[in-house]
Write a structure and sequence with these properties.
- The complex is a heterodimer of chains A (about 260) and B (about 450).
- Chain A is of the alpha/beta class.
- In chain A, about 35% of the residues lie in helices and about 25% in strands.
- In chain A, the strands form 2 sheets. A 6-stranded mixed β-sheet of chain A has the order 6-7-8-3-9-10, sandwiched between helices. Chain A has a 4-stranded antiparallel β-sheet with strand order 2-1-4-5, covered by helices on one side.
- The longest helix of chain A has 14 residues, at about 125-135.
- Chain A is globular and about 55 Å long.
- The model of chain A has no long low-confidence stretch (mean pLDDT about 90).
- By secondary structure, chain B is an all-alpha fold.
- The longest helix of chain B has about 40 residues, at about 160-200.
- Classes of the chains: A alpha/beta (about 260), B mainly alpha (about 450).
- The interface of A and B includes residues 100, 102 and 103 of A.
- Chain B: GO terms for molecular function: phosphate transmembrane transporter activity.
- Chain B: Part of the binding-protein-dependent transport system for phosphate; probably responsible for the translocation of the substrate across the membrane.
């Protein structure tokens, strides 16, 4: 067992992830802190999404997926038997590549998490959580008059903000975003990026993205993955202007990927 | 010459036509050799097929039409003779004499039991020979005409391949129309017989009456009710209530287990077993219900203190029918649950919901329309099911909600009405058609609604 790490929100030590026999992530150690947005970049198939999904144990749902090494949330090993995966996922929320609102009303989408975790003691409190989550996700003004409408009837960008509101509603500490803008148009993307700015500091945010400009715009720290390895991790400005590794430089300048 | 021999002759001549057409086209090919390509449009065998089809199809079609209409023509010819004027006018005796004379003429019977038929035999012989000769001549004439027509049309640039393609399409169209016309025909016969029934029994009595007691032989003043409400109730009670109380929870739960909890190995093992359950003949379920389940339930009811528990109780038939329906509900629900995008499930799990919370609050609501469609199809199947209820349910029309009591269904009564002596002029027999019509319309509507629901649900996730 590695040493219990520092004040970081999430720390990983020597993490390997396997899909059956295939090694998708090789010996990754990284520290993510509370105050910064961290971007994971890298070419397709480099394992960045796989690594992200192991941070809230969503890989558990994939048959044959296996994680080695240690991942700590506030110093607690999340793969230890004492860790309840249900509690973990309430603390580490996730936003997916494609907006996936439930086929329920906007209100019920946001209230879903608070209800299953028993966060509200009454209707008034639940209303309060729904309103504040939608406000934080920048969607309240657009939907406050039609909370009863189906979440699936919203536009793609609105759906994705609804999913962010849904994740916020259980008051998580970390939000994992797996290419949250890849299915959205540029305007909707800009709204999400603004939202990420606003949420910074309240939650530790990790965003996986294909779009290097996006990583440069929204993150303060960037990790570059290649073929399952963490190549370089540091200040975003450093990575993009003065990378230490040649592979990082080649990727950023568009030599491959 | 018999019909079978004629058919073989036609097919043999068709083969000759095929060979002739092919040979002629082969000659085209030889003539065109060395010239520019594409001079002969189609392969020789297509020419052969074209000639053969043009020869055989009209001839065979004529043969079947002639087989259908010639008996009536024979009878007409015989009746036109002055020798038949002394036949009895009573329809039954007259028909008996005529059919005996015909049987002797055709050699199915050697001696006559009725004196009058003896003298009609030569008449029948003549007429039969005459019309059979016309039929044979017509068939062969059409065969040669069709073959010659096709043969003379063959040219190097004749598009035999496209023609054969078109004829193949027509053959397929014909095959698919048969099923549709059969359905229409069945429906028409149901309507026709039901109309006759309703001209004898008021539709109101049938649809809202509660006294079902049809008698084969009507004695004046006797109780002879045609009120079908107890049958409709029995059908709904067994097929749509008891059976569904068994099939919906068990089918749905097995679908949830198979899609969400089972490992792929268990799924691979269990799904085929469930599907085999759907292939068990219903008569097997029937005796299982009648011999095993029904007595057990009666004993149980007696133990509970139910005094009028019957051995042919509704519960046994309903439970076994429900078991029969489980695979249907399970596989329809399985499909609907599997059609819910995985993103939805992941979204819920990522919120910290457990598996069963995810199923209850996200997957099932999303899959509900598909599940409802499956249940409607299952109900439609259950109310039309016959064998289990014939063997396990009762024959007494009984308007009761007591599951231990005997109760009958529409299908059981149809079987009862059509077993034994029948007279297609009496309401007793015709009632079976009215019941059949009611059942047909109900299941038709159920299937229609179910398929619409399922289809709309599929579209929602595509």
């Amino acid at each position: 067992m590695a040493e219990t790490p520092t004040h970081s929100k999430i720390s990983t030590r020597n993490v390997n992830v396997f899909y059956g026999e295939k090694k998708a992530i090789d010996n990754v150690s990284i520290d993510v802190d509370m105050d910064n947005v961290t971007a994971f970049i890298g070419p397709s198939g480099c394992g960045k999404s796989t690594f992200l999904r192991s941070l809230n144990r969503m890989n558990d749902t994939i048959v044959g997926a296996r994680v080695e090494g240690s991942i700590f949330l506030d110093g607690q090993d999340i793969y230890a038997s004492s860790m309840d995966v249900v509690q973990l996922r309430a603390r580490v929320g996730m936003v997916f590549q494609k907006p996936n609102p439930f086929p329920k009303s906007i209100y019920d989408n946001v209230a879903y998490g608070p209800r299953i975790h028993g966060l509200a003691s009454g209707k008034a409190e639940l209303d309060q959580i729904v309103e504040s989550s939608l406000t934080r996700a920048g969607l309240w003004a657009e939907v406050k008059d039609r909370l009863g409408d189906s979440g699936t009837a919203l536009s793609g960008g609105q759906q994705q903000r609804l999913c962010i509101a849904r994740a916020i509603a259980v008051d998580p500490e970390v939000i994992l975003m797996d290419e949250p803008c890849s299915a959205l148009d540029p305007i909707a993307t800009a709204r999400i990026e603004e939202l990420i700015h606003d949420l910074r500091g309240k939650y530790a945010i990790i965003i996986v993205t294909h779009n290097m400009q996006q990583a440069a715009r929204v993150s303060q720290r960037t990790a570059f993955f290649h073929l399952g390895n963490l190549i370089e991790f540091g200040e975003t400005s450093e990575i993009f202007t003065n990378p230490r590794e040649d592979r990082t430089k080649d990727y950023i300048t568009g030599r491959y990927g | 010459m018999t019909g079978t021999a004629l058919l073989f002759l036609v097919l043999g001549l068709g083969l000759v036509a095929w060979i002739a057409g092919r040979a002629r086209a082969a000659a085209f090919v030889r003539a065109a050799k060395g010239g520019p390509r594409g001079q002969v449009n189609s392969l020789p065998s297509y020419h052969g097929w074209f000639v053969a089809i043009c020869a055989i199809i009209p001839a065979v079609f004529f043969m079947f039409v002639w087989q259908t209409i010639s008996p009536a023509l024979v009878t007409n010819t015989v009746l036109a003779s002055p020798m038949t004027t002394d036949l009895p006018q009573d329809g039954f005796a007259r028909a008996a004499i005529l059919s005996e004379a015909r049987a002797i003429a055709q050699g199915f019977q050697t001696t006559a039991f009725q004196a009058q038929s003896e003298k009609l035999v030569p008449l029948y012989k003549n007429a039969l020979a005459y019309y059979s000769w016309i039929g044979m001549a017509g068939t062969l004439a059409l065969l040669f005409a069709g073959g010659a027509f096709a043969f003379t049309r063959l040219k190097p640039d004749f598009r035999a391949r496209n023609k054969v393609e078109y004829l193949v399409m027509l053959a397929l169209l014909f095959a698919s129309l048969i099923a549709i016309f059969t359905t229409v025909g069945i429906f028409a016969s149901l309507i026709f017989e039901s109309y006759q029934f309703f001209s004898m029994v008021s539709p109101f009595e049938f649809l809202i009456g509660t006294n079902w007691n049809p008698k084969n032989i009507v004695t004046p003043g006797a109780d002879n009710g045609y009120g079908a409400i107890p049958l409709f109730w029995g059908t709904i009670f067994i097929g749509a209530i008891i059976a569904m109380l068994v099939a919906i929870p068990l089918g749905l739960m097995s679908a949830i287990f198979l899609t969400q909890y089972a490992s792929s190995n268990i799924r691979k093992l269990m799904k085929p077993i469930l599907e085999i359950l759907a292939g068990v003949p219903t008569v097997v379920y029937g005796y299982f219900a009648a011999l095993t389940v029904a007595p057990a339930i009666r004993d149980f009811a007696v133990m509970l203190g139910v005094s009028n528990a019957a051995s042919d109780n509704a519960l046994a038939a309903g439970i076994v029918m429900g078991v029969m329906i489980i695979p249907l509900v399970s596989s329809m629900s399985d499909d609907s649950i599997a059609a819910v995008p995985n993103a939805m499930r992941d979204g819920s799990l990522a919120m910290g919901a457990t598996k069963s919370e995810t199923i209850k609050k996200v997957l099932l609501p999303a899959a509900l329309p598909g599940v409802v469609g499956g249940v409607l199809l299952a109900v439609s199947r259950a109310i039309g099911e016959t064998m289990i209820v014939v063997m396990a349910a009762g024959y007494t029309a009984n308007l009761t909600a007591n599951p231990f009591d005997t109760i009958t269904t529409v299908t059981v009564q149809i079987v009862a009405l059509l077993t034994g002596d029948q007279d297609f002029g009496s309401p007793h027999t015709l009632a079976a058609f009215a019941l059949g019509l009611a059942l047909f319309i109900t299941t038709f509507l159920l299937n229609y609604v179910a398929l619409r629901v399922v289809k709309r649900y599929r579209e929602a996730y595509e």
